[in-house]
Amino acid sequence: MTQTCQCGRPVADGYVCSRCTNDAKRHLDRIPDLATELDRAVTRQTGFGPQFRDFITGTNGQPLPIDWDVSIIAGALRHTLTSWTLLVIHETEHLQPADEQPATLAPWLRGHIDWFRGQRYGGEFFDELGAITDRCQRAIDAPPNRATITVGPCPQLAETGYCPGWVRAIIPEQQPAYMACIECDTRWETWQWRRAGKRILDRKLEA
Q1: Quick one: which of 45, 53, 80, 96 is 20 to 30 A from 71 by CA?
Q2: At what angle do helices 68-92 and 122-140 cross, to 10 degrees?
Q3: How far is CA 154 from CA 93, 167, 170, 176, 207, in A?
């Protein structure tokens, strides 16, 4: 009986078409390198942007040792791969991989790609795989914003005190960087960062 892949193509030998299957293979092939880059980004060992990070942290010139936003995405990658690996083990009784690292799980899951094609939830796995690899890639090098970094509490005065919003530094790939408050929409260009940064730091110290 012919099935219809989630992309709309007919499939005679499973639930996922060959094109979507090949896409999933490419995603899995990318994951070991993506995981390595994520690990570097989590501990801020990337070559990008230390001048911005040092300036905006306001912690005696020292950047935070962990990038929590990237760490969350790295955790989501590991969770996605682990969940689907456990499902395969449960359904097939195959031996589990040597460890739970993405660089180990991705090739292991690739070895079961044809099995996924024959499962009704194969398309769901391929969808999640594409979504998480895209998130990982954006975390490493995300166009149009090369980085979005939380700076600190907004220093602008409102009617009842300080604005309750938070300031973020937006660093696009091909346009000038700027800082902006997500609540009051106040914007600071790079030439204003030093003064704005001092005001933000003063607010941090008051908290």
Answers
A1: 96
A2: 160
A3: 54, 5, 15, 21, 12
C-alpha 18: how far from its chain's center? 27
Tens digits of per-residue pLDDT, 93-132?
A: 888 898 999 999 999 999 999 999 999 999 999 999 999 9
Beta-carbon-side half-sphere exposure of residue 138 (alpha carbons within 13 Å):
14
Q: Which pair of structure tokens corresponds to residue 62?
A: 């020292």
CB atoms within 10 A of CB 133: 22
Give which of 169, 201, 139 is closest to 51, Cα–Cα.
169
Question: Tokens for 75?
Answer: 């955790």
> What pLDDT, in 10s, does the model give residues 147-198?
678 888 999 998 888 888 889 888 776 678 889 988 888 999 999 999 999 9
Token readout for 149 is 């970094």
Angle at 189 between CA 40 and CA 156, to 5 degrees: 100
Structure tokens at 98: 């040597």
Q: Which residues pair with 161 in a beta bridge?
A: 158
- Report how far Cα 85 is from the mean position of its chain's Cα atoms: 21
User: What is residue 148's three-state secondary structure?
Assistant: strand
Element (H, E) at 193: helix 193-206
At 153 the three-state DSSP class reads: strand
One-character DSSP codes across 79-101: HHHHHHHHHHHHHH-PPPPS---
